[in-house]
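BUG-290 | component: ligand-complex export | severity: low

The export step for NDP jobs runs without errors, but we want the raw record kept on the ticket for reference. Input record follows.
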Amino acid sequence: EPQTLSILGLGAMGTALAAALLDRGDPVTVWNRSPGRGDGLVERGAHRAGTIDEAVGGSEVIVTCLLRYASVRETLDPLAEALRGRTLIDLTTTTPDEARELGTWAAKHGIDFLNGAILATPPMIGAPGAQLFVSGPAAVHERTRAVLEVWAEIVYDGAEPGAASLVDLAMLAAMYQMFAGLLHGAAMAASVGMRATDFAARAVPFVAAMVPHFAGDAEIIDGGDYTVPGQQSLHFSDLSDIIRASDGAGANSSTLRAVQALIAEQVTLGHGDEGMARIYESLRREEDRR
Ligand code: NDP
C-alpha cells in the first residue's frame, strides 16, 4: 500500500520532486506559501491543498523543501500536533546541528523524522546520477525508501539525523577547495598570458587523473599506519617553490599557504618522511589525532 505524500514548498526543487511523482502516475498533494506556484503540477494531476493544515492532515508522509532551516521551523512549528504520528522528511539544506534540532523537536511531538540532503539539481531529479543522503531512525528510512528512490539513489548515513547533512557538506567542502585550487592555477598561468580556457584544457585531464589517488590515501588513513612505503614524502611535497612562483606571478597565494602550513606542521612533528595522507592528522578534530 503506497503512502500518501505531501510536498511543502514548490520552489525549483519541490516542483521537480512533485513532477517526478506525477511522471510515474503517483498521486501527490502540494502546498506553497505564496500563491502562483504549482499551476503546471495541478494541470498534470497534483492535488493542491487549500491550506497547509490540509496538506499536513491529508498525508502520511510530509516532505519539506523550503529555503533554509528557519523557514522549516516557521512553517512547521504551528503544525506540531497535526504532524503527530506522521512521517516528516526534510529535504531543505540545513546544517547538521539544525537537522539534529529538528529531529529532537520531531521526537518531542511524536513525529517520525528523516533528514535528507539532495545532491542533484532540479533537472536531475528522477534521472540517473541524482543522489539523496538520508539519516534518521532505520525504521523510518526503510519505510520511506521506495518513495525516495523515485527521486534519486538513496544513501543511508545512519540513525543520527545530522549525519546526512554533514556528509553532504563535507563533500561540498572538498569540491569548493578543489575548484579554488584550479582557479588559483589559472590565475598563476595568466601571468604568462594563458587564457583560463587554455589552462582548463590542460589542467582538467591532469587533475582528473590525480583525484582517484585519494582512495589510496584513504586506505592509509583507515589502515592506521602512515609509514607505508611508496608514498611521495612530505619533504618532497614542500610547496615553497610553488608559493615563490605564485608570489612571483602576482597571484594570491593564500590557499596554497594554507596547505603549506598543514604540511609544515606534520614535518615539524617529525613526519616528513611520511606522505600526504598524514595531513589528515592536522585537519581532523584534535581529540582523535595521532
Ligand atoms: P527556491 O528558491 O526555488 O524555492 C524556495 C522555496 O522555499 C519556495 O517554495 C518558497 O516559497 C519557500 N520558502 C522560503 N521561505 C519560506 C518561509 N519562510 N516559509 C515558507 N516557505 C518558504 O529554492 P529551491 O527549490 O531551489 O531549493 C529548496 C531547497 O532545496 C533549499 O534548501 C536548497 O538548498 C535545496 N537544494 C536545492 C538544489 C537546487 O539545485 N535548486 C540542490 C540541492 C538542494 P515562496 O514561493 O512562498 O517564496
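Assignee comment: Attached the raw record above. The chain has 13 helices and eight strands.
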